[in-house]
Amino acid sequence: MKKIELLAPAGNLEKAKIALMYGADAVFVGGKTFSLRARASNFERDDLSELVSFAHQRGKKVYVTTNIIPHDEDFLALGDYLRFLENIGVDAIIVSSLALAELAKKQAPNLAIHISTQTSTYNSIALKYWKKKGASRVVLARELSLDELKEMVPKTDLELEVFIHGGMCAGFSGRCVLSNHMTMRDANRGGCAHSCRWNYFLYQKSELLPGFFNFGSKDLMAVPFIEDFIRMGIASLKIEGRMKSIYYLATVVRAYRALIDSYYEKGKIAEVDMQEAATEIAKAENRQTSVGFLQGLPTVNEQLYDNRAETPTKEFVGMVLDYNPETQMALIEQRNYFSVGDEVEFFGPFKKAVTFSVPPFVDFETQEELTVARHPLQKIRMAVPIPLEPYDMMRLVKTNRNYESKNEKTDD
Question: What pTM does this model have?
Fold first, then answer.
């Protein structure tokens, strides 16, 4: 049985490399054009070339999104772009337009074609159609239940990809023009303003109801179903979120990687492993999660409505740049405020989180002894008696507020 793929998003080169290092088998990325996340940093051509080389050296893959709903003017530069992607060795393109897929077959015949979730593929008849059109994989609609997926898999030899984590669209497989009407940003050409997540006034007849209303959904979190996906023969498990941070990607990818590896090592995923993965993922989430459509039509419990419950996490406080095992000194790049006495965790791609209390440290540039790291991207040296590797991350567990208050009074 071919091992299932873990597919991660990446909005820029740094994010892509982190996702691959933390356990993704492949990443999907967008160029500066033809991508549905036009407001992500996205990739210049040189970045795409570097990423493909980085991934292939590690036996991993790169898929490029060309999944806009194209207008005539979008085709002017498309042929040249597709030939470029083929020449640098991109493993597949993700498309939502049959016209774009047909052009790709002519202009870049060695590029594999993956059919985007934007096509709303819900049935095996559509899968047969896409196979005739030369697709090698279909990204299924997010509105399918687990039972429906089990019915579809045996009816095709196409690779099937399903979403397991991330934002859910209030529209039908992304078919929404709310952003177009309200902000003049075309949701189907990369400009979605996420208007469904705004706060709205809600009236009952002419009476204004208290609070605000929005109709965004909770994020998808499919930890309980990973074993089901593997057993039924799904080819790829997809995480959504090209706009997300490197900390989010590292945390979420690492958690799902552990679940997948656990299945292949033990033949099953234990309840304790699922609980641990869910706990880890919660450390990076800023919205509530649900199982989406996997157990059938969503109920009120899968929606946010009057409770957006968005709390941006500040737990990511540092990235390990270097570590000397002889001196046990770590070079750390600050990513959020932390101070002496804070309880933190270090974790890495295949390293379980280890708790540590922050000692006094020094500024790398000035050698000044510090008790607080408050400057963005400040480089500090700190004694850490835990074996570390570059790209390990440091996150805040508990702040020593008493120490900070005392320190502030002394400074005054």
Answer: 0.90
* Contact call for residues 37 and 244 (beta carbons, < 8 A): no
Handedness of CA 10, 14, 17, 22 (dihedral sign): negative
Q: Tell me the per-residue pLDDT of 83-132, one tens digit each, with 9 for 90 and over.
A: 999 999 999 999 999 999 999 999 999 999 999 998 999 999 999 999 99
Q: List Cβ neighbours of 161 (8 Å cut-off, separation of 6 or more).
A: 7, 114, 137, 138, 139, 140, 234, 235, 236, 237, 238
State whether 168 and 54 are in the same domain: yes
Pairing of strands 236-239, 289-290: unpaired
Domain holding 379, by residue range, is 316-411
Yes or no: say if 121 and 158 are a contact pair by the CB < 8 Å rule.
no
Q: What is the pLDDT of residues 183-197, one digit of tens each?
A: 988 776 667 888 888
CATH of the domain at 25: 3.20.20.380
Same domain, residue pair 293 and 323: no
Among 153, 166, 36, 172, CA closest to 94: 36
